Amino acid sequence: MTANQQSNEVTVKHRHRPEGPEKHILVFIFSIILTAIAFAAVMAGGVNATFAVILLLVMAVLQVFVQMGYWMHLKDKGHLMPILFMIGGFFVASTAIVMALFWVWW
Amino acid sequence: MAHAHAHGHSVKRYTGLMDWITTVDHKKIGILYLLAGAFFFGIGGIEAILIRIQLIKPMNDFVSAQVFNELITMHGTTMIFLGVMPIIFALMNAIIPLQIGARDVAFPFLNSLGFWTFLFGGLLLNLSWIMGGAPDAGWTAYTPLSSTEYSTTRGVDFYTIGLQIAGLGTLIGGINFLVTIITMRAPGMSFMRMPMFTWTAFITSAMILFAFPAITVGLVLLSFDRLLGANFFDVASGGNPVLWQHIFWIFGHPEVYILILPAFGIISEVIPTFSRKRLFGYSSMVFATILIAFLGFMVWAHHMFTTGLGPVANALFSIATMLIAVPTGIKIFNWLFTMWGGQIRFTSANLFAIGFVPTFVMGGVTGVMLASAPADFQFHDTYFVVAHFHYVIVGGLVFGLFSGLHYWWPKMFGRILDERLGKWTFWTFAIGFHLTFFVQHFLGLLGMQRRIVSYLPNQHFDTLNLISTIGAFLMGVGVILFLVNVVLTTKKPAGVANDPWEDGRTLEWSIPSPPPEYNFKQIPLVRGIDAFWKEKMAGNKGMTPAEPVGPIHMPSPSILPFVMSVGLFIAGLGFMFSTEDFSNAFMSLIFNKYIVMIVGLVITFAAMVARSLYDDHGYHIEVEELEEEGKA
């Protein structure tokens, strides 16, 4: 009896209105466009190499934000802790990378 | 549905040794961590005594230079990774869920896995003593000294593989406590109402999460260099030995804060309790803890001032290092102001806590001295450095751990440690500590090198070294007195009050000592900082429950973590000896063809598959059982 009540409570607490697939389909298309632009910049040839690298990096950064925000739900409520810890991890990892690239093998 | 399923299912309960091997109860895992940590602490202590005997007089030949190198390496490695870290985890396991009003940690199975991987990693590392020589390249294992060219025994392989396995356990434990503290706090316990020990455990766990991957990468690279012929650190093949120093210290400096922050937390619990005052400047304590953790990741190169990083880098890392004195100073003054005007009781726990404050300040002052790059060129690799880090690790952390053990012993075991013996422990240990390490500052300034096996007479080293060795023996006496205290206390009947110190402020003192396996019959409602004290001051007998009495969901015990760790242990041994030349054809077959390694990995993966395929929903303690226990 009590167990039933408990599990009911749990479902009520976790019930939230699903967003529907529209946004995710849009985001998915956007991701593919980002990839396509990056791909095209290299495959088409004739694009200045420096420009291509910068374009690739920009596309990559946008892609990361889209993936993290939508598919890993970081844009949703209650994700402050994962965001904080990801920033922390990014900070420490980039310290190590900068150290190795520009300091040890400068 | 899961609920209905679990209610019908009766759990297999183990007894005796099997109970301990299969337990997923955070309180029992805490005791396991304590036992294992004490065991390794003992080994590290014996190594320290042997080092001090060798150095008692000039040109001593008590041990050979090779054995001395092995002793100093294993003393440092054992004490840090296998001695004090597990004892920190012991206190975190035993206390954190109680302090936040939770019934267990977030992942009880992982908690057990973390312990067993740590234990088997530690055992593997210490097996080196009887399997061809211990690691001998210092606890920092600097390349090229730790390369196969200069370290020809298997010692450094035991170091890389053993620490790898033990480090896995630490990482698992850190993640577990992060999730536990974020998600399992009782209703009403906001972040800014968490006890300080919980806060420091939280920040320490975050630091473990960020720092341990660095050492993992470093150890993998080093073991690849040694066992698979890679050349990450080999100059002749385009590698760079300075890279190892960077990787090691990117981990190594956060590591020392991983060690000291929980001690800060313990002191912040003990001093308010025995001053009958709330902690002075709680929010500044939280802020200082976070700031120390943040700065701790940006100062690693101060261990490498003499490597030749250049004046700009040295200056920047000097300043960053000195900045850490600011949040640490905030903490020191907060403790002093907490005691100010309080009704101080000098219990053993509080003696260690109060002794901690000036001792740690002394270690901090030499830390600021060492932070100055030009001065560091004089101090580097002398006994001045040895004195400094023993002042912060022993005078800071070990004092903190003794304080915490005396303070929480009744909560963990239901028996209070003998106060008279506790005070003897404090005075012998504290006096022994200062005798041992205070003089080492001057030995360093006089020019005695760190890690030196012997020294010539008449360099003003003789008397100071003798004093230092006498002090080391006195510290040994202190530890033995503590063990005697533990044995005598264990023989006493259990059953102290919920709040044996009578001035307990936090949630762990609101439940029986030792707590039942489910900790809280009803999860408490937290109405302010120092939740239990607040209720006491409001005239309430106990905490206000936040839920009705109901069946309590418990995790099932499992042997799988133990099996997984055994598998890793076997695989580690197999990998390590894969390059060994065996005279025996059978040994050659099973090791050189990686058969032992594969068998070990198969055991681990089989256990992981078993864990994944078999859904264990745990079991429930029903209301009737709870009521019966309440009557008894």
The first-level CATH class of chain B is given as: Mainly Alpha
Beta strand % of chain A:
under 5%
Largest β sheet strand count, sense and barrel closure of chain A: none
> What sort of overall outline of chain A do the alpha carbons produce when their principal axes are compared?
flat
Beta strand % of chain B: under 5%
The number of strands of chain B is 2
Q: State the helix count of chain A.
A: 4
Q: What is the subunit arrangement here?
A: heterodimer
Structural class of chain A: mainly alpha
Strand order of the largest sheet of chain B: 1-2
Rounded mean pLDDT of chain B is 94
What class do helices, strands and sheet pairing of chain B give?
mainly alpha
Low-confidence spans of chain A: pLDDT under 50, at least 5 residues? 1-12
- The helix-strand sequence of chain A is HHHH
Low-confidence stretches of chain B: 1-6
How many domain regions of chain A? 2
- Specify the helix fraction band of chain A: over 70%
Largest interface: A-B, 18 and 25 residues
Q: Span between N and C termini of chain A?
A: 69 Å
The first-to-last residue Cα distance of chain B is 33 Å
Q: How does the SSE layout of this entry go?
A:
The complex is a heterodimer of chains A (106) and B (632).
Chain A: H1 2-14, H2 22-43, H3 49-71, H4 80-104
Helix pairs in contact in A: 2-3
Chain B: H1 2-8, H2 16-22, H3 26-54, H4 65-99, H5 108-127, H6 155-183, H7 196-227, H8 241-275, H9 282-296, H10 311-323, H11 325-339, H12 348-371, H13 373-379, H14 383-413, H15 419-446, H16 462-491, H17 531-537, E1 552-554, H18 560-576, H19 585-592, H20 595-613, E2 619-621, H21 623-631
Antiparallel strand pairs in B: 1-2
Helix pairs in contact in B: 3-4, 3-5, 3-16, 4-5, 4-6, 4-14, 5-6, 5-18, 6-7, 6-18, 7-8, 7-9, 8-9, 8-11, 8-12, 8-14, 9-11, 11-12, 12-14, 12-15, 14-15, 15-16, 18-20
Structure summarized in a few sentences:
By secondary structure, chain A is mostly helical. Chain A contains 4 helices and no strands. In chain A, 78% of the residues lie in helices and 0% in strands.
